[in-house]
């Protein structure tokens, strides 16, 4: 998207012509966070989901500094407020507040019918709606990091006296209400689908607006914000409390209604859970491989009808892009520049996935996962997940299809399109000195687990490197919406057939039986899905599995107020320096996290921001 060109001296000139006004709208879009960038998405590395080598040759990852417990008030890491330390959008020095200001300028000028005379009324309304959506999203993006913020409904005039710029933080619920108001106004005008994907792919639709509204309201209804006594100390200088610390059950009902509205709109627009179409390939693939491709391609296929919101400002290809960071060499000679393998899921994540019976490894009556140092040899009927005859950890056997679709490990299969049939395919050999191992000086895997989920299956190696199928980062997909609705509905009225239905649709795509059937037949806690508390636990685990490595786990654990438990554990992997079974299959502690509550639930405002604006108050603990 082209942005405002050089040479346009004043706003008046910009809004004289349709062509220049459209470029200004694209300026508003240009502040979209690059969440498909390993360095620009704090949720990838600030928690316990994945790790990367902590070395400067491999690049700075300032979100990793947060996971390492090094966040600070002076020059905070990943400073979204001031656009510094990889918090800038789209680059450092670019503040998201600038994006909000541009949206306000656009809305104000396009709302004047005397401006841009060469535009239709329908187009004018649509463009204003897009700017309103972006303005709402940028406010919500800030609120995810900082909680309550100043809400910029209108720009302060540049001629205003200095005190006019020193805005206090507005109460959190007021900010949420304003965001929802903008999203409702946008959804009422925007088209449900993009008609011309060649010229408008990535622009906002009414389905995107309704889906973001669901996410916003579920967040606001969650324990971090709904009745959290820890936030009673956050008060403006004039005595205004920034959070309502009384729990309001109705917030969950409002969130459930919004999620159902978004689901209905998405399905009416033709969106559905992705299923891989084997017939289009010409290959004879097993059901095992087809199921895994349905899981992987749900987010990496650029034509996936599950993607609600593709962020075309954030692509995942390129020699230093997200896919290259996740890809592993699959034979001797594969270029490590395009197969860097640095994205390293933790053992915590490997344990999170269900067994092949569809229940947690700690609950399955048929299996014992207590000793993950035990090694087993893959049998012929396991050869589509693990190389036949290969010995690997007991943890890697008897797991659900999403485990094998999302994760690679020593001995695991990695199916790509250029392997043709799935009897002729690659597997990982990950011990030190092996072709997928961690003997590179700075492009190495930290944990012994690899992130297959983020790599499109059409990736190919070549003599001079390799190529990746480009896909726009999926900001939101239908499975996410189903899980938000199931969560909100369970909080409203507890277990019901409707809650089970939306969970089971996702599980069916993942090759699993329904929740009630799986727990009744295989869990040592068979009644778990029948209670609100038990089903809440199931929904949360289902969400963390289905959306693993998509930048959702971090924010979910914060809003559920579970981060203090989850982020105070060891970050662990296998001993990547081991060159044989005995030395490699030892648990290695990479880092002991230290999450302090309530401080670390919110980003700190920098000392500079507090000095510049004395009406701002700091977040608790900082």
UniProtKB/TrEMBL annotation:
One cellular-component annotation, GO: cell outer membrane
TM region positions: none
InterPro entries: SusD-like_N, SusD_RagB_dom, TPR-like_helical_dom_sf
Gene3D superfamilies, sorted: 1.25.40.390
Keywords: Cell outer membrane, Membrane, Signal
KW Membrane (keyword) present: yes
Localization (cell): Cell outer membrane
Chief location of this protein within or outside the cell: membrane
Domain SusD-like N-terminal: 95-216
Protein name: RagB/SusD family nutrient uptake outer membrane protein
Species, as recorded: Leeuwenhoekiella nanhaiensis
Lineage summary: Bacteria, Pseudomonadati, Bacteroidota, Flavobacteriia, Flavobacteriales
């Amino acid at each position: 998207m082209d942005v405002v060109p050089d040479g346009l001296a004043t706003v008046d000139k910009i809004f004289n012509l349709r062509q220049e006004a459209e470029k200004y709208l694209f300026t508003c879009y240009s502040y979209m966070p690059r969440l498909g960038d390993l360095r620009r998405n704090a949720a990838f590395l600030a928690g316990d989901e994945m790790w990367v080598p902590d070395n400067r040759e491999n690049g700075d990852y300032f979100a990793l500094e947060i996971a390492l417990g090094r966040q600070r008030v002076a020059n905070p890491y990943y400073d979204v407020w001031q656009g510094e330390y990889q918090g800038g959008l789209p680059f450092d020095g670019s503040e998201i507040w600038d994006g909000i200001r541009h949206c306000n300028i656009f809305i104000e000028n396009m709302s004047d019918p005397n401006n841009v005379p060469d535009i239709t009324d329908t187009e004018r309304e649509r463009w204003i709606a897009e700017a309103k959506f972006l303005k709402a999203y940028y406010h919500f993006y800030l609120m995810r990091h900082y909680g309550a913020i100043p809400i910029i409904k209108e720009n302060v005039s540049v001629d205003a006296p200095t005190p006019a710029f020193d805005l206090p933080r507005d109460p959190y619920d007021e900010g949420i209400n304003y965001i929802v108001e903008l999203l409702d106004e946008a959804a009422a005008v925007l088209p449900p689908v993009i008609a011309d994907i060649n010229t408008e792919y990535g622009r906002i639709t009414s389905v995107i607006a309704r889906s973001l509204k669901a996410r916003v309201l579920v967040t606001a209804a969650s324990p971090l914000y709904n009745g959290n006594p820890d936030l009673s100390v956050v008060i403006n200088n004039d005595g205004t409390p920034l959070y309502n610390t009384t729990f309001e059950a109705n917030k969950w009902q409002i969130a459930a209604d919004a999620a159902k509205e978004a689901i209905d709109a998405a399905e009416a627009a033709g969106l559905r859970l992705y299923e891989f179409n084997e017939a289009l390939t010409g290959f004879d693939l097993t059901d095992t491989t087809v199921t895994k491709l349905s899981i992987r391609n749900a987010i990496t296929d650029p034509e996936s009808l599950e993607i609600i919101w593709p962020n075309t400002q954030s692509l995942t290809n390129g020699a230093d892009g997200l896919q290259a960071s996740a890809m592993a060499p699959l034979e001797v000679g594969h270029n490590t520049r395009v197969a860097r393998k640095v994205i390293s899921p933790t053992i915590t994540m490997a344990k999170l996935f269900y067994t092949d019976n569809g229940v947690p490894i700690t609950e399955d009556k048929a299996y014992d996962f207590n000793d993950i140092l035990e090694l087993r040899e893959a049998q012929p009927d396991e050869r589509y997940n693990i190389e036949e005859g290969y010995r690997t950890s007991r943890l890697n056997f008897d797991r659900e299809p999403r485990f094998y679709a999302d994760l690679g490990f020593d001995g695991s299969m990695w199916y790509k399109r250029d392997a043709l049939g799935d009897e002729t395919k690659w597997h990982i050999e990950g011990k030190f000195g092996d072709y997928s191992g961690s003997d590179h000086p700075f492009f190495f895997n930290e944990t012994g687990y690899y992130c297959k989920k983020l790599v499109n299956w059409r990736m190919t190696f070549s003599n001079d490197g390799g190529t990746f199928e480009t896909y726009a980062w999926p900001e939101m997909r239908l499975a996410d919406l189903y899980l938000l609705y199931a969560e909100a509905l369970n909080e409203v009225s507890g277990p019901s057939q409707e809650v089970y239905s939306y969970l089971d649709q996702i599980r069916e795509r993942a090759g699993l039986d329904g929740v009630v059937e799986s727990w009744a037949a295989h869990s040592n806690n068979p009644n778990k899905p029948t209670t609100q508390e038990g089903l809440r636990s199931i929904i949360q685990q289902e969400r963390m599995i289905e959306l693993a490595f998509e930048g959702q786990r971090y924010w979910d654990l914060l809003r559920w107020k579970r981060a203090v438990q989850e982020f105070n554990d060891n970050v662990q992997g296998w001993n990547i320096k081991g060159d044989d079974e005995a030395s490699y299959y030892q648990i290695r502690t990479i880092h002991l996290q230290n999450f302090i509550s309530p401080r670390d639930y919110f980003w700190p405002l920098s000392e500079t921001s507090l000095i510049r604006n004395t009406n701002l108050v700091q977040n608790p603990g900082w």
